[in-house]
Write a structure and sequence with these properties.
The protein is an alpha/beta fold and 265 residues long. It is built from 10 helices and 9 strands. Helices cover 41% and strands 17% of the residues. The two termini are 34 Å apart. The protein folds into 2 domains: 227 residues, P-loop containing nucleotide triphosphate hydrolases (Rossmann fold, 3-Layer(aba) Sandwich), CATH 3.40.50; 34 residues, no CATH class.
């Protein structure tokens, strides 16, 4: 009983901190409540998120603000058609020491951080996009036969322009599978856009403040995994997943004509 009461207290404390974090983010990223909630949910679940929307909707500013609020080291990669995998992961260079001996030295790329912003990820070639596959799945990269761990926690928040725009490459299925959520960022309504107009043209522009740090975020992720899940929730998840697999007994007949692949376990 005492253990349950302690868990409830910790959950309530985390709830208050999350409310503070959301308020801090929305002080700068105005009006997009659902987007902020979904991004925080992805990070608290230990996953990565793909933000999809037209240019100019504040996706880059949101990721920058989250780095401040969550207290994480962050790096940004601007994806372009000429970007190479080494520009993301890093590379080995040959050093010549004062005594004339030579040795390879590894220079870390921007992936060695805690919160990585992959800006306009679909503007790079599939070869470069695939450089993130191991990092997003395993939290490490293998370069020169050596496993190199990334920061803890490690999250990728990628932005993507609609694939109908010129100069974009569709993300391969293997990389899409690395993202826990795709979050659509739509145009704001009139009242929200008015608030943005006032907030960004005055002398007192909104500033975010830290609410978490790396250790605090890891503790929050661990706490969420300790929370009990009801049997009804588990059954609802199983019903939804299994009904979305073409050919499964639980799937409706029209599913075979709608989906090619269903969700994996």
């Amino acid at each position: 009983m005492a253990e349950n009461e302690k868990l409830v207290t910790e959950v309530l404390t985390l709830t208050d901190r999350l409310a503070q974090a959301r308020a801090s983010v929305e002080h700068r990223f105005v009006g997009q409540h659902a987007v902020v909630e979904q991004v925080l949910a992805a990070i608290l679940s230990g996953g990565h998120a793909l933000l999809v929307g037209q240019p100019g909707l504040g996706k880059t500013m949101l990721v920058d603000t989250l780095a401040t609020v969550l207290g994480l080291d962050n790096a940004r990669i601007q994806f372009t058609p000429d970007l190479m995998p080494a520009d993301i992961l890093g590379s080995e260079v040959l050093d010549i020491r004062p005594d004339g001996t030579r040795a390879f030295r590894f220079i870390e790329g921007p992936v060695f951080t805690q919160l990585l912003m992959a800006d306009e990820i679909n503007r790079a070639s599939p070869r470069t996009q695939s450089a993130l596959l191991q990092a997003m799945q395993e939290g490490e990269v293998t370069i020169g036969g050596e496993h190199r761990p990334l920061g803890r926690p490690f999250h990728v928040l990628a932005t993507q322009n609609p694939i109908e725009q010129e100069g974009t490459y569709p993300l391969p299925e293997a990389q899409l599978d690395r993202f826990l959520l795709q979050i659509d960022v739509d145009y704001p309504d009139r009242d929200t856009e008015r608030a943005i107009l006032l907030a960004t043209t005055g002398t007192d522009q909104g500033r975010a403040h830290p609410v978490f740090d790396a250790e605090g975020l890891l503790a929050a992720q661990a706490l969420i995994r300790r929370m009990p899940v009801g049997e009804a929730v588990l059954n609802a998840i199983l019903d939804l997943v299994r009904a979305a697999r073409p050919g499964a007994p639980e799937a409706p007949g029209w599913m075979a004509d709608t989906l090619v692949w269903g969700p994996g376990p």
